[in-house]
Amino acid sequence: MPSLALDWLLEGPYGLLVALVVIGGGTALNYLRTRREKMLSFRVRFNSRLGFDPPDAGNVVRLIGPDHTEIPDPGMVVARIKNVGRSSITEQDYVHRLGLTFPGTDRRLVTVDVTEARPPDLQDLLTGEGFEVHDNRIVLPRVHLNPGSEFKLVALLEHTSGTGKPAVQTNGILRNGRIFLDSDGRRLRRSTLIGAGLSTLLAGALVAVLLVGLPPDPRAECAEGELTVNGSSAFADAVRTLAGQYMERCRGSRITVDASGSIEGLNELDNAPPEDGPRRLTLADGRFDGGGEFPNVEIAGTLAVVPFSFVVHPALPVTDVPRAELAKVFRGDVSNWNEITLADGTRGPDTEVRVVGRTSTSGSRTVIQKLLLDGDPPAGNTVNSCAAARTEAAVEAPIICEVSSTGAVIDAVSRYEGAIGYVDMPNAVAAGTAVTQLTVDGLGATLDDLNDGYPIWTVEYLYSHGPLAETADLTRSFAGFLVDADQADEIQQLGYPPCVQVGSVPQGLCSKGN
C-alpha cells in the first residue's frame, strides 16, 4: 500500500481512529514505529474454532466449563497488546478505554485471562479494578504502558460454529495517538496453542479440559532430554521465552537457561566434560572463534542484532553525549559530569559520575571495550559497592562499581544519582522510566539509527561444544528452533532484529557482525 494511502487510512478525517490494517503486519508496524505519536499495537495471534471440519471427523478438543457442562462449539482468541511507540501511554491518554468485542448472535465469553505481561506486575493491574467482562465484550482499565510494555489476552468463547473465522473488533481512542489493529491470526500453530495459550488460560480460569486425538504438528521436530543454555544475560530473557514455547510444544524436553555472562558461559562450554558438553549451548554477545581462547567451542548459529544503550539515572539532565566523551567516562578519566561536554556544546551538571560497569566475564563489557574504547579495557572498579560514598574512593578517582548482570545494571543506575551504565536496548526499554536512555551524537539504539551509523551494537551468537551435528538430539533441535524463520516474529516482538527475518530474509547487519 502506498505511503499516502496508509497516511490517509491512519489520519482519517477525525485525526484519531482505530485502523484495521490489511497490509502485511511487519511492513505496517515498521512504518508506524517511525512516527512520533503514541502507538498501541493490537495483534491477533490466534483466532479459530477448537475443532476440525467436517463435523463427522469428531471433536478434537472438548472443554468442560466452570458449571461442569460441555462448552458448545468452543473457540479461542489470543491477542498481544503492546505499546510500540516511543512515548509512554498514561492513564490520562485514554479518551475512550480499550475494548474488544466478539460479534456473533450467540457467541459468549466463557472466561478471559491476562498472561505474559511485561513487566510482570502489569498483569495484576490489568486484572484488578476496572477490568470488565460482558457477554461478548472485554473492557480494559486505563493502565500506564511504558514503551515496550505488553501483555496477552486469552479469551475462550462458545458458539463459534457457522460463523466462518470468528470476528474480533477493537475500539478505543488515545489522545495524540492511535490504536493499530493487525488481524493476522496465523502466528500460533495448533500445537503451540494447546501447549501454551490454552493451558495458561485453563489454569487461570480453573476450567477442566479433555484433549482427544490431537494430531502432532508435522513441522515440529521435537526431541526429548535435558539441555542447559548459559551465557549472555542481555539475551537470556528472550531465550527463556523461546525455551518455554519449545518445552510446551515438545513435552519430553527440559531446557534450563542460566544467565552467567558471555565469557563465563563460553569457558564453561569449552571446559565441559565429554558427557556434559553435547547437552549444552551458550549465548554470547559477539563472535569468538574456536581454536583460540575457546578451542572446543564452535558457532552453532546467529540469532539477532543486539543494540546497546547507555542509560543514566532519570534525574540526571543529560540526554545526548558525544561518543568521545562517553569513552572518557568508561576509561575512568572523569569524576564529575561538569567535566563532560554534551552534544549541544554545553557542560554537564555539577554531579558526581557513578559508573556501573560489568565484570570481566560479561560479553556486554567486551562490546563496550571493542566499539567504544577501541580495544582498551574499561577502568576497573574503585569501590566495592555501587552504593559506596565518595569517601570510600580515592579523592581524585571516579566512583566505578561492577555488577554481574543486565538487571543489576538497571537496578543500580535507577537507584544512584549521577549513575551511568550500558545494557541492551530492549532491556532498557523494558525498564521504562526507571532509567533514561542516552543518544550518542544524536543517534539512538534503534534499527534505523544502527543503519545510519549508531556504533554500539553486536550480533548474538549461539555456540555448541564441538560441531553442532555431533551434539545431543535436543541440543540440535533447539538450536534449529532458535534460528528458524518461524521464530523471527517472536524475536522481533522481544525487541531484537532477528538474523533470519519473516519469510527467511536475512538481516544485513548480522553478516557484518560486531
The class by helix and strand makeup works out as alpha/beta
Rounded mean pLDDT is: 78
Strand content: 25-35%
Helix content: 10-25%
The total count of helices amounts to 14
The parts where pLDDT drops under 50 for at least 5 residues are 1-36, 52-61, 183-220
Largest β-sheet summary: 9 strands, mixed
Rough outline: globular
Using only CA atoms, what is the Rg? 25 Å
Q: Report how far the terminal alpha carbons are from each other.
A: 35 Å
Count the strands?
25
- Tell me the count of domains: 3
Organism: Catenuloplanes niger
Domain PBP: 222-484
Protein name: Phosphate transport system substrate-binding protein
Pfam families: PBP_like_2
Features of this protein?
6-stranded mixed sheet, Phosphate transport system substrate-binding protein, signal, 3 domains, disordered N terminus, D-Maltodextrin-Binding Protein, domain 2, transmembrane helix, PBP_domain, globular, 9-stranded mixed sheet, 514 residues, alpha/beta
Describe the structure.
This protein is of the alpha/beta class. The protein folds into 3 domains: 3-211; 225-305 and 462-512, Periplasmic binding protein-like II (D-Maltodextrin-Binding Protein, domain 2, 3-Layer(aba) Sandwich), CATH 3.40.190.10; 307-457, 3-Layer(aba) Sandwich (D-Maltodextrin-Binding Protein, domain 2). Helix content is 24%, strand content 29%. The chain contains 14 helices and 25 strands. Strands 13, 14, 15, 16, 18, 19, 20, 21 and 23 form a 9-stranded mixed β-sheet that branches. Strands 1-11-2-4-9-6 form a 6-stranded mixed β-sheet. β18 (354-358), α8 and β19 form a beta-alpha-beta unit. α4 (190-205) packs across α5. It is globular and about 75 Å long. 41% of the residues are buried. The model is unreliable at 1-36, 52-61 and 183-220 (pLDDT under 50). Residues 222-484 form the PBP domain. Pfam families: PBP_like_2. It comes from Catenuloplanes niger. This is Phosphate transport system substrate-binding protein.
